[in-house]
């Protein structure tokens, strides 16, 4: 675990970072994305077990394998970023071709590029519960957070964790109060937020996390679950991969190789959790015990699949509260309709 984040009271830098990110996002909407040539693909991922399918794809060189089946030698470039805003900026600026982020950032970028770059999801990365955890014993529900608390999440107002928190707030206080807790949230990468929550002693008393960071935090007896995303939507796909319409159309063989590689990785991870755990440790160099990791992955609520599940309730909510302008009629509006995934929600 990295050293505790040297953190709050230095909240100002989060505000500055957020403002810069939003500015970059706005400017990138005006700049044309530069598509890579057929035979090249640049992929941006974030942190956590939810990106394990990409670890398998990378470790087994599956894109290259399926590219060769199409008579194509594919060059694959990998990068790691934190937060949906940074991911969206990278995609729209043409720095990456495939973006990995939550359903929240997907719906934001789908809405803002509607009729232009037409960004849509390629596939899900699986179904996983996300926990909002806290080390403040007074916080039993989201209604208990006060001005003295700060909640870490990957990107304020954009990340899927932020959107889940807004959905929960609307459920409790009504749609007009959907952003009631936004003022308590700060953008902190999952590893740093986990370390800070475990160490305690800062204003950071909450973290809307993802696996394995939420499970690592819960090993501390002072940390407890405040909210489970499955309580909001049931089993759902929180994290997806998305791309511009131009990349998909201009690079059909590369795109197909990527989709086929991801489907093979999902089948591998779901059938052999032990091998999947080994892959995660090998690729990410994560400092987590293999037995502990395997216990997390063996959670029956985890499912590695490219087929999206229960993403539409969040999309409908975001339109209802005005967070996105365009209302999708179904999940098919913001997912490319390829051979895989075949059925979703």
Overview of this protein structure:
- The protein folds into 2 domains: 16-127 and 236-333, Periplasmic binding protein-like II (D-Maltodextrin-Binding Protein, domain 2), CATH 3.40.190; 129-233, D-Maltodextrin-Binding Protein, domain 2 (3-Layer(aba) Sandwich).
- Helix content is 42%, strand content 14%.
- It is α/β, with parallel strands linked by helices and 345 residues long.
- It has helices spanning 12-30, 52-59, 62-69, 84-92, 103-112, 160-173, 190-199, 213-218, 229-233, 245-250, 252-271, 273-284, 290-297, 312-320; strands at residues 40-45, 75-80, 98-102, 120-124, 131-134, 150-153, 185-187, 204-208, 224-228, 239-243.
- It has a 5-stranded mixed β-sheet, sandwiched between helices.
- It starts with 11 loop residues before the first helix and ends in a 25-residue tail after the last helix.
- The chain contains 14 helices and 10 strands.
């Amino acid at each position: 675990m990295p050293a505790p984040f040297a953190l709050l009271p230095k909240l100002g830098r989060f505000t500055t970072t957020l403002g810069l990110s939003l500015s970059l996002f706005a400017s990138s909407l005006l700049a044309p994305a530069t598509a890579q040539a057929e035979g090249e693909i640049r992929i941006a991922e974030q942190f956590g077990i939810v990106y394990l399918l990409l670890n398998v794809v990378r470790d087994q060189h599956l894109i290259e394998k399926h590219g060769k089946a199409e008579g194509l030698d594919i060059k694959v470039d990998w990068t790691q970023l934190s937060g949906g805003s940074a991911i969206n900026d990278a995609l729209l600026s043409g720095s990456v071709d495939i973006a990995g982020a939550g359903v929240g950032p997907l719906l934001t970028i789908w809405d803002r590029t509607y009729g232009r770059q037409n960004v849509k999801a390629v596939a899900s990365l699986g179904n996983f519960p996300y926990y909002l955890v806290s080390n403040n014993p007074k916080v039993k529900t989201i209604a208990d957070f006060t001005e003295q608390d700060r909640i870490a999440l990957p990107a304020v107002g954009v990340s899927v964790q932020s959107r889940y928190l807004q959905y929960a707030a609307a459920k409790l206080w009504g749609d007009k109060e959907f952003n009631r807790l936004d003022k308590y949230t700060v953008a902190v990468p999952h590893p740093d937020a986990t370390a800070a929550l475990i160490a305690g002693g800062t204003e950071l008393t909450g973290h809307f996390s993802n696996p394995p960071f939420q499970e690592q935090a819960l090993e501390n007896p002072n940390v407890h679950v405040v909210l489970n995303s499955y309580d909001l939507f049931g089993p759902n796909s929180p994290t997806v991969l998305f791309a511009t319409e131009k990349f998909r159309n201009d690079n059909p063989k590369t795109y197909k190789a990527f989709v086929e590689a991801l489907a093979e990785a999902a089948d591998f991870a779901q059938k052999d959790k032990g091998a999947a755990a080994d892959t995660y440790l090998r690729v990410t160099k994560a400092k987590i015990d293999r037995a502990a990791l395997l216990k997390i992955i063996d959670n029956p609520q985890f499912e590695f699949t490219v087929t999206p599940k229960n993403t539409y309730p969040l999309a409908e909510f975001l339109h209802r509260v005005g967070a996105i302008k365009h209302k999708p009629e179904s999940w098919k509006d913001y997912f490319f309709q390829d051979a895989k995934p075949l059925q979703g929600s």
